Amino acid sequence: MTKAAAILLAGSRPGTDPLAKAAGVAIKPLAPVAGEPMINYPARALLAHPAIGKLMILTQTPSLLTGDPATAWLGEHPCVIFEQSGAGIASTLMALLDRPDVTFPLLVTTADHVLLGPAMLDQFVREAEGADMAVAMVERATLLARYPDSRRTWLKFRDGWWSGANLFWFGSVKARPVVALWQEVEQDRKKGWKILSAFGPVALLGAMLRISTLRGGIARVGRRFGLIARLVAMNRAEACIDADKPDDVALIERILGERRG
């Protein structure tokens, strides 16, 4: 297959991030996890994977990353490009999709996806290949079987309760209308009903009445926009554990310690 370009979202939302403030760093991607800035973990995983050709890091302040001794290697790596990030994720992605020098497929993830590893990327790339758009999710039973105390934001469907895994695939420019819709509901990303309602009353009612499966719903959304859209149900619980809160960081550091031990 054609190698994908990976996009690593490393920007800052308005206001002060609590993890960055607690760590005494300017931006969240520099907040330490197990002794080093969190961005280093997903960056290394992406650059080491054979399906990834180059890595674009989106941030409002590239100099904070290239100027920090612990992350300066990113600015020196031949496969890393820094791109200016806008105020929102979706609006920044929209600008990239419209650029003639940006090629597909694109794999998008976040700087706080500390536990991203080769097995997750293997599964996601394998199952997303051939789709115009794919999104990775973790079903609640998968997470709770391994980490029963972990708390996530869940979307309830007939085929389970699902949480995002911060992995997105854009296989072609056909994904642009869906990103445009994402831009409209970006401020309501934690309000599942608001996101669903943007896809129409059938999707909203289907979820509320548990008459729709997530997999089928995503496929229907794709057909609405004239593209192939696919759910990738991740089989590793760690796929939906990001470094968003102090409790998350503590859990991630424990998992990293177990791996190293």
The end-to-end span amounts to 35 Å
The helix-strand sequence is: EHEEHEHHEHEHEHEEHHHHEH
Going by CATH, the architecture would be Alpha-Beta Complex
- Helix segment tally: 12
Q: Over the alpha carbons, how many angstroms does the gyration radius reach? A: 18 Å
Question: Keyphrases for this structure?
Answer:
two-stranded antiparallel ribbon, eight-stranded mixed beta sheet, Spore Coat Polysaccharide Biosynthesis Protein SpsA, Chain A, 39% helix, alpha/beta, 261 residues
How are the SSEs ordered, and which strands pair?
Blueprint: E1 4-9, H1 18-23, E2 32-33, E3 36-37, H2 40-48, E4 52-59, H3 62-66, H4 72-76, E5 80-84, H5 89-97, E6 106-110, H6 118-128, E7 133-139, H7 140-146, E8 155-157, E9 160-170, H8 176-185, H9 192-198, H10 201-208, H11 214-224, E10 229-233, H12 246-260
Parallel strand pairs: 1-4, 1-6, 4-5, 7-10
Antiparallel strand pairs: 2-3, 6-9, 7-9, 8-9
Give a structural overview.
- By secondary structure, the protein is α/β, with parallel strands linked by helices.
- The chain has one domain: Spore Coat Polysaccharide Biosynthesis Protein SpsA, Chain A (Alpha-Beta Complex).
- The protein has twelve helices and ten strands.
- It has helices at 18-23, 40-48, 62-66, 72-76, 89-97, 118-128, 140-146, 176-185, 192-198, 201-208, 214-224, 246-260, and strands at 4-9, 32-33, 36-37, 52-59, 80-84, 106-110, 133-139, 155-157, 160-170, 229-233.
- Strands 1, 4, 5, 6, 7, 8, 9 and 10 form an eight-stranded mixed sheet that branches. A two-stranded antiparallel sheet has the order 2-3.
- A hairpin with a 2-residue loop joins strand 8 (155-157) and strand 9.
- The radius of gyration is 18 Å and the shape is globular.
